[in-house]
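hey so i finally got around to running the thing on that chain from the lab meeting. sorry it took forever, my laptop kept dying and i had to restart like 3 times. anyway pasting the input first so we r on the same page abt which one it is
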Amino acid sequence: MDLKEVIKSLAGASGVSGDETEAAKLALGYLKEFTDDCYIKNNCVFGNFGKREKGKPHILLDAHIDQIGFVVTFITDDGFIKIANCGGIDRRLLLAQQVKILGKKEVYGVICSIPPHLEKKSDEGKVPEYSDICIDVGMTKEEAEKVISQGDKIVFLQKCRDMQSDRISGAALDDRCGVACLLRAAEMLKNETLNCSYTIMFSSQEEVGERGAKIGVYDVDPDIAIAVDVSFALTPDDSELKCGKMGKGTMIGFAPTLDRELSKRMKEVAAKNELPYQIEVMNDETGTNADRFSVNAGGVKAVTLSIPLKYMHTPVEVISVSDVETTAKLIAAYIKEVC
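ok and heres what got predicted. didnt touch it at all, straight out
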């Protein structure tokens, strides 16, 4: 597997929360390389490995397939597209961004921006509300209504691009790099003889309340659950107390909603296999699907493994491919040890 190319391919697929179909189908195609028992249900992608009835413990490996984006709310008389957000997008960066509307056909547009020469002094530095934001698609209302409907999803028009070293930048790396990580782990485990079983799940609607995780974990009913997501990588304007470092490996989560013994076990496995890792301490929920896994039925032992990522929820997220690879190696090593 060319891990970098898989990440870029997955990140290029559209899959705003609630409409993950394109990204889910692409991920399913990759997953079929490692198991015949895979399918899509409720826009979540599932892949089963080993026999459920005998293969204990049953481990759930999860990464969410959805991405942040927008939804069309209204078309004005002048043909401009009004929008609302799907997921937590920073409004400060929206003006003048290129976007793609997923209507009856793909429609490209630009989020409107007033030139600084025409901006009122009283508006300088203000962050626009969504009610003030609209998209210019270069159409009349009649033309727009033929191809765009209320409820259509919208994504940033931003391809992944190579940076220096092994870093890449683009939209939707949260959490398509996690999806690629689990595909890489499945590749590593493909020829292993295991006495346990595991299910890979690429869950939907994480960005709007971890909804796919709630449904999926109930369906799978595992003994152990590992959520692979992204977390904050250090930038010059932030603190080492809050962030991990890119290129320094997996961020192993410790939080009240996580199983402490499982978090400690991940540390031990990483150290034993000489894999770099970092500790991420959270004093409440993790903000990942692991929070939903831990309270399924009678409770599931859950842990979060995070890939450091810069500029989260923007069109220019940045990751190091080596951190994705290291996380996949940790997961594969843990499963081989447990099984």
